[in-house]
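User: Hi! I'm a student and our assignment asks us to look at how structure tokens line up with a sequence. Could you show me two examples?

Assistant: Happy to help. In each example below, the sequence comes first and the structure tokens follow. Example one:
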Amino acid sequence: MSDTAVLGGGCFWCVEAVLRGMRGILSLTPGYAGGDTEAPTYKQVCSGQTGHAEVVEVEFDPEIISYKDLLKIFFTLHDPTTLNRQGNDIGTQYRSVIFYKDENQKKTAEAVKTEIEKENIWGAPLG
């Protein structure tokens, strides 16, 4: 049985590259989420007018990697303290975001975020 997570940590290709080949990751699908335009183009998303973020849908095997562990990796593979930016990539589409599929994922994400903030690994509050 597999599970899914939708994560945005800046450029979807960068997130995808870090997760690719990790034990328990079954598939990775880059795309856009969270906006108002149906099936937006790259150009439309880059305009900042659609409200979309670059995301990766991660299909994973929870028997090998838990959602909690996946989120711990997510919070360390990008800088979640910078608003609408990852390195030289600037724009609302590069924001740090987690799209929950249910209340359980939301609670887990909030708990992991709190844990990461307490560890102060970024030296700044998470966005």
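Example two works the same way, sequence first and then tokens:
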Amino acid sequence: MGRGMCSASLVALGFALLVCSAMVSAETYVVGDSKGWGLSVSYDSWSNGKPFAAGDTIVFNFQAGVHNAVAVGASEYQSCKVRTAADSATMASGTAKFDLKKGVNYFICGVPGHCAAGMKLRVVAN
């Protein structure tokens, strides 16, 4: 193999590694940062300006047994009414994780009154 073929192969390998590393570099975001998921955070302000992307993971940390985090549709987000039952195992654990899909993702606390009090989050992932 000539010198030119070897360097071309190395360039192709380097490009492939760069593409692969970009594909697996999803970010993880903790909702509310150190304050977590509760009634004391403005979630619109928290999410504003963050570069969310499809495949990123969003983590909700909350007081076990007091809150939960439920992925919902647009109408459930607007009405603060959950059609699907919240995962009781998640509620007991105090942590919920979701992978963001491309487009708009909606989350609320399914405990009655909590969403209406501000425990709702809308995230747009590119």
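Here is something you could point out in your write-up. Strands lie at 28-30, 57-61, 70-72, 95-99, 103-108, 120-125.
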